Amino acid sequence: MKIRESTEQERKEILNIHKQAFGEDKGPVIAKLVDDLLNDETAMPILSLVAVENNKLIGHILYTKAVVTQTEILIAAQILAPLAILPGEQKKGIGEKLINEGLRLLKASETELVFVLGHPTYYPRCGFIPAGEQGFEAPYPIPPEHAEAWMIQELNGDVLENNSGKIQCSKVLNEPQHWRE
Q1: What is the pLDDT of residues 40-53, one digit of tens each?
Q2: Which member of 15, 43, 79, 94 lies 3.0 to 4.6 Å from 170 by CB, making a disulfide possible if both were Cys?
Q3: Where are the domains of the chain?
Q4: At 171, is the secondary structure helix, strand, or coil?
Q5: What pLDDT does 6 receive?
Q6: Inter-residue long-range contacts of 1-4, CB under 8 Å, 24+ positions, other chains counted
Q7: DSSP H or E segment with residue 37
Q8: Which CATH class is domain 2-175?
Q9: Helical (H) or strand (E) element with 95
């Protein structure tokens, strides 16, 4: 399996991965979100990676720009959303490989923080910790019973030590329906 940056020519196939991975109810909604994010100027810079096996795309991950507000310094941040693996390829570690390669590339590009709203037992395997406990608020309130689903990872520097703030994401992702766990 190979992980690499996606190409524009693969967009239809990427959207299909999300449709299949998230099922009949959520799949079309998530695919539209991905399609819209790929066109959203406020989401730039974007990191879009695919997992490829036997010349077939089997997974996709998207990282988009985030801004930390209410802080005195400019922090380079990204949001991981969404991650999708074809149903027949799940539970093989592909998601973790996509996440880790994305984090490696973002670290090399001097990104300081990465945020995710996701399963609180899955993302910690890749180094994520609860963001609220670190003083970083999601764009929309996360219910207390899902607080651990809002996570953060520090890639460069020590910005977690003396900073906090509210996260502002791209225009497309900044809709309340995307912030319900």
Answers
A1: 999 999 999 999 99
A2: 43
A3: 2-175
A4: coil
A5: 98
A6: 1/51, 1/52, 1/53, 1/58, 1/94, 1/97, 2/51, 2/52, 2/53, 3/49, 3/50, 3/51, 3/52, 3/97, 3/98, 3/101, 4/49, 4/50, 4/52
A7: helix 11-39
A8: alpha beta
A9: helix 94-108
